[in-house]
Amino acid sequence: MDISGKSDELAIAIKELVYQNEEKGKRAAELTIANTELTFQNKEKGKRAAELVIANKELAFQNKEKGKRAAELTIANTELAFQNQEKGKRAAELTIANTELAFQNEEKGKRAAELTIANAELAFQNEEKGKRAAELTIANTELAYQNEEKGKRAAELTIANTELAYQNEEKGKRAAELTIANTELAFQNEEKEKRAAELIIANKELLAFTYVSSHDLQEPLRKIQTYSDLLEQENPNSTAKGKEYIRRIQSAAGRMQQLIIDLLEYSRINATERKFEMTDLNAIVEEVKVDLKEAIEEKNAVIDIRSLCHVNIIAFQFRQLIHNLISNALKFSIPGVPPHVIISSILVKGNSTNHEFLLPGRSYCHITIQDNGIGFEPKFSERIFEVFQRLHNRETYAGTGIGLAIVKKIVDNHNGLIFAVSEITKGATFEIYIPHI
Fold first, then answer.
1. Domains of the chain
2. What does the DSSP assignment read for 232-299?
3. Quick one: 267 exposed, middle or buried, by C-beta within 10 A (0-12, 13-18, 19+)?
4. What pLDDT is stored for residue 202 in this prediction?
5. CA-to-CA distance for 319 and 342, rounded, in angstroms?
6. In this structure, what DSSP letter does residue 358 have?
7. What is the share, in percent, of the chain residues with pLDDT greater than 90?
8. DSSP one-letter code for 215
9. Cα–Cα distance between 180 and 185 in angstroms, integer?
10. Prediction pTM value
11. Can you tell me the distance from the alpha carbon of 217 to that of 208, in angstroms, rounded to the nearest whole number?
């Protein structure tokens, strides 16, 4: 027999026994709790039994009351059934009455609608009759007017046919005149080509004249001036009349030389290339002031420059223009009164001026040059711009009468406008308009 195997079984049996005892303890504890719970439940059941007795008494009382209420309810139900029956009768009668009333209202609505339609139809018919009557009146008037117009058209047609015949006759005449005009035009074009060729030749001759003027004519003048100076030096003891003759020779030669220079300048205005560029007028006036510095200082003149604009011009020509106008202001000043020249400009639209020669929508630089000199009579305001026109004698005021003609030609080269306003002893104002781009 295996002793170790028995020991293991005994140990297992002991563990099993201990476990069973623990479980019994737990069951005993649970049984105690259950008994305590059962005691509490029995106690509660007693309380519930007492409450049930009281509730049964209350229920018996309520059942008795319910019996009374049931009897009263039976009577009330009987009364209610009777009232409902009466209400049903009244409702049936009301339904019949409402049905009849609805039928009558519907019939009245139909009659009213039919009457409305009939009235509308009658009004429409009356309106249509009125329209037909009015249309008939208009149609009769239109018919009378058309008949009248037909009469007029017939008369006009007669006149138109007569006019058409006359126009056809005139067209024939115009065609003949046009043929003659075309022949004349062809002749004029041919003549223009001849004139153009002649103009080219004339320009060449003018260039040749310019060359002769600048060289061949000035050379004899220089000799005259030189020999007259030598003659004056060689004859210091000549008579007063002899000295006067020499002075006149020198003066005439000087005027001749100035005339040649002015003529050359005038011809150069037309012959030179016209190169336009945006230029500041302030710079041009300053350059002219430097050129005329000695004359300005000699006469204590004041050149007042006010807000000059930039303008698209031929710069060297405009410098000549400003030079000539300021020179004129210095030359034709009142003796003993320092010259005061005011130069200003503003931008204006052509339509803001009163000059019909300016384009309405174009901008112009309006230049004003005003002096306080001797002025001139208003009737000479256009004449002063003509070549060789002088308003004063040579002994009083030197010059050739070409300076303002050059100014006018320069303004024309710029597609501008110039005019002068003046009165005797009240100075002169030159107004210039140059297109501004």
1. 277-437 (3.30.565.10)
2. HHH-TT--HHHHHHHHHHHHHHHHHHHHHHHHHHHHHHHHS----EEEEHHHHHHHHHHHTHHHHHHT
3. middle
4. 62
5. 16
6. S
7. 37
8. I
9. 9
10. 0.46
11. 12
